[in-house]
Specification:
By secondary structure, this protein is of the alpha+beta class. It contains ten helices and eleven strands.
Length: 321
Amino acid sequence: MRAPADRPPLTAWASALTMTFRETARAKVNLTLSVLGRRADRYHEIESLVAFAEIGDRLLLTPGHECRVTVSGPFAGDIDGPNLLDRTLGLLLEPDPKLQLGSVHLEKNLPVAAGLGGGSADAAALLRAVRRANPECAGAVPWHALAATLGADVPVCLAGTPALIWGIGDKVEPLGAAHRLPPMAIVLVNPRLPLPTAKVYQALAAGSVPASRRPPALPAALADLTSLVDFMRSHGNDLERPAISFLPAIVDIKAALAAQPQCCIAAMSGSGPTCFGIFADDIAAAAAAAALTRMFPRWWVVATQVVGGSVSGPSNATEVA
């Protein structure tokens, strides 16, 4: 008997059932974030230099007839409302009913509503896993368009590489060799308090988007930490002020990071409240993470690296908690 037209042949399902597809939903770190204004549709246009940390959530796709999402991990209980992964599975049925989907398990290692693009990174990881599970028809699926439908941060998380983004975040220009970021050891700190992105943008009270604007130019070469830090200081994060109005602890986190030996700069990522410090090397980052955990045991503190190059020492992220 022939399989129904809207499903893959049973032989394809049988083959897929023996496989699982694993993806890491890496933490997105906004090195800079400029808000240009609010559009008529109430979305905000931005420009942001984005990088990705080695630490992230872990996603496992097991192809099969049953499509469901399960979640575990230290921050699983903090997910409030519908999981974006459920919406992603539903959306994936639209471009090609023959796509092999299946059950999804998420290990939630990143804080929720933290300014790290966690939910967007999870959705992007699922898109990548489904793309790998369907090599024969993946070319016909508009992956970037699907990502943009799911959320403003999903397209850059789908790319998963350092990039300059603009528009509402849906325009993504990966950094080429001429603009490659230097190796970075970083420490991420979150006070274990959520801060919804929409709330921060609303408090910013941005004006209208300028009528005439051009796509941003890629930054000049940022091959060393000094150049990168200078670029970050000159651009900053426009969402920091409104974020602090809701969570003044952000000021304390930045100050604590900046006070650590060999911290080159401390900044807030995205809409907060997670802040990060860039350090001279992995050893300095690990020492800072250990010191901060001793001083502020309730904070979530992680020493890790930006994807794209090792600084020194081990490459695995280290959580101190």
